[in-house]
Write a structure and sequence with these properties.
Structural class of chain A: alpha/beta
CATH superfamily of the largest domain in chain A: MoaB/Mog-like domain
Largest interface: A-B, 89 and 90 residues
Strand content of chain A: 25-35%
Strand order of the largest sheet of chain A: 2-1-3-8-7-6
Number of strands of chain A: 17
Low-confidence stretches of chain A: none
Largest sheet of chain A: 6 strands, mixed
CATH class of the largest domain in chain A: Alpha Beta
Number of domains of chain A: 3
Helix content of chain A: 40-55%
Oligomer: homodimer
Distance between the termini of chain A: 49 Å
């Protein structure tokens, strides 16, 4: 099955927002074995929407539209859809009742705009939106289909995950399985070389893609064919072979993450962790806390941005700061110990660096970042030499902090 | 002049990378008064590229292509371009000489791929790429044009900024101006109603779009026409009228953000801020620190995830926690005071809530979030009733924490 993605909104074309919906949809559809043949963005314009639909349906069996369903007046998508289908719009009472109930619960008033959100092209199937007011719609065009969803990413994702993807999975004939092996601590080329002979033995039905990110490489294995059982078994076999070969680098599989695996590692050992951050400004803690249930193993932390707080809260000695500077191995070691004393956690990670764009020196250029993971008795440190971009430096420092924390716990508990 | 953007690459359609080139191009072209009428992504496929070019040229005077020129692609894009134009490919010696010189300087060897990079469609103008090997190309199709550039963002941007944009600026006739008014603290519908009469007075050359996000709505005004001076004046006039009407909601303009405006507010007043976070787990601090130069006004903060840290570090009284709970107005007030004592900051913001998915009770369901902003003398608090999604709750709590912090500073300093 071929699919096209069509995003609607002037804000996309003028570059006010980056269209992330298309990439998300592309990934999910690809995972289901559906080929995405084009992704088109058009403005909030009746003629352009109709023209785009025509062109998308030339090469695709199903068009996934997002955007243009918001409650304000620049909404013309539904009118264009109805005209394209040659039908009228009707008032969908169940949607109105749902929106009304939502608003009553929140103590807010409905407006005329919400009334308009209940207008649907005749013949459309209504797709439940658990996260917002405007529902999705599915419409038939001869033997093809159009699925229209709101542009707000979490609403679109909710409709896809709860309604559309299960429906498509049930229809599919060829099966495609994916297995992603998550690694950290080595580069793409290094991993590729380490497993070259295993990959050389792959049967034709199995493929591999290397997806590098900061400090991490994901290895995505894809099995495509008709025989479910043998494809699954092949995937299992080669996943195990690769994992055995680079076991020190593999930290998880599929949709997991360093922070999610940290939860498993900590709760299995019954230990609590804490963070002491300077340049990352709370991002390491926020990443840990992004995992539901993190209160079972995360005590908390300190964002010691000013040196004063490093001294006062974390007990970093003024001499250390004076002699070695805030960005030094000595300082992060004291920060890591300090936050353990403060929080009563078993293990901590500390990070201090120069995120930039200002603040670099010839000896410590922007991107110089020290990290320490340890407990009251011992520690390991790492000097990350990142680049000039503030955002990337903070991301890299966060990832390497989690990597170091994981390594310390695995080696000592 | 109408433009279309066309990005080429399987990696875009399968969602392996998010296409940021289109948004960047959209912004730059819009700024020049060129209307972007569509953005299309197609795979590395000869037929799809030609088909895409045909469709883009139907509605656009100029097509900006990115991607498909890298040294590992099979040169599908250039062959497709040549076939579309009905010309052959020739070897462009000056490009080869430039690549050769680049590589000699780096001490690296040329491969056959680099030889292929010097093949150009006959009749194409070569656009200098100062940042990489593959140059851009400009080709005429009757009275229309195709500009093809590499997909690597910094190479594409370099060609645009050094060659293409200056050329287009010199040609432009119609102008388009945008002004975005950034608001926080009210919903889309509420704002629309509040300014309905002003919008009703807009001349035909001015349009408005409402772009909602959590806790915020951006109002984008667009002016399009020939008379630069009068368009600019109209934009200024209506921006001022709207700002005056909802002055308590407007926090900035155009590409700014709450955290960037916080910098201006704090540095203008010479005050330092601090954060005390529970459910946001450091995300408020991390958002503040995402702004370069934040060390000039951000002292730091505490991530008091465990109650123990709330008591020990922030001095929240155990009685308060016992009587009112960690998620209460009383607790966030004490957290906010505690972090000021700890950090020596002038103003602080504290947040404690139930991010979910677990931990809710009938009285305090998931999404119940208390926020306090204050100094040693007074404070304001806010009860945010968010939803069930942990990620969104953390985002919402972060945004409202910044909104409350801003409000307190503006009202008291």
């Amino acid at each position: 099955m071929n699919a096209a993605i069509m995003t609607v909104g002037d804000e996309i074309l003028i570059g006010q927002i980056v269209d992330t919906n298309s990439a998300w949809l592309g990934q999910k559809l690809t995972d289901l074995g559906i080929s995405v043949v084009r992704a088109l963005s058009v403005g909030d314009d009746h003629k352009m929407i109709i023209n785009g639909l025509e062109q998308c349906l030339e090469s695709a069996d199903i068009v996934f539209m997002t955007g243009g369903l918001g409650p304000t007046k620049d909404d013309i998508t539904k009118k264009a859809l109805a005209d394209f289908l040659g039908v009228g719009l009707y008032f969908h009472q169940p949607t109105f009742d749902r929106i009304k109930a939502m608003f009553e619960k929140l103590g807010r008033k409905l407006s005329d705009h919400h009334h308009d959100q209940c207008l649907m092209p005749e013949g459309a199937d209504i797709l439940r939106n658990a996260m917002g007011t405007a529902p999705g719609m599915m419409m038939k065009v001869a033997d093809k289909r159009i699925i229209s969803m709101p542009g707000v990413p979490f609403e679109m994702k909710s409709i896809m995950e709860e309604v559309v993807l299960p429906m498509l999975a049930a229809e599919s004939d060829t099966v495609i399985f994916h297995r992603t092996i998550l690694t950290c601590g080595a580069g793409e080329t290094q991993i590729e070389n380490a497993i070259a002979d295993i990959v050389g033995d792959f049967p034709p039905a199995i493929g591999i893609a290397y997806l590098p990110a900061i400090g991490q490489v994901r290895l995505r294995l894809t099995a495509k064919g008709n025989d479910k059982a043998s494809l699954r078994q092949d995937l299992d076999t080669f996943t195990k072979k690769i994992t055995d070969r680079i076991s020190d680098l593999v930290y998880g599989y599929d949709g997991s993450s360093l922070e999610a695996e940290l939860k498993n590692i900590c709760t299995a050992r019954g230990i609590f962790i804490a963070t002491a951050e300077s340049c990352t400004g709370g991002n390491v803690a926020a990443t840990i806390v992004s995992v539901p249930g993190s209160s079972a193993y995360f005590s908390g932390g300190t964002v010691a941005y000013a040196n004063d707080i490093k001294t006062k809260t974390l007990g970093v000695s003024p001499e250390t700061l004076l002699n070695y500077g805030a960005v030094s191995e000595e300082t992060v070691i004291e920060m890591a110990r300090g936050v353990i004393a403060l929080s009563g956690a078993d293990v901590s990670v500390a990070v201090s660096g120069i995120a930039g764009p200002e603040g670099g020196t010839p000896e410590k250029p922007v991107g110089t970042i020290w990290i320490c993971a340890g407990n009251t008795e011992k520690h390991i440190t790492y000097l990350l030499k990142s680049g000039k971009d503030r955002k990337l430096n903070i991301e890299a420092a966060t990832t390497y902090s989690l990597i170091l924390l994981r390594r310390f716990i695995l080696d000592n508990y």
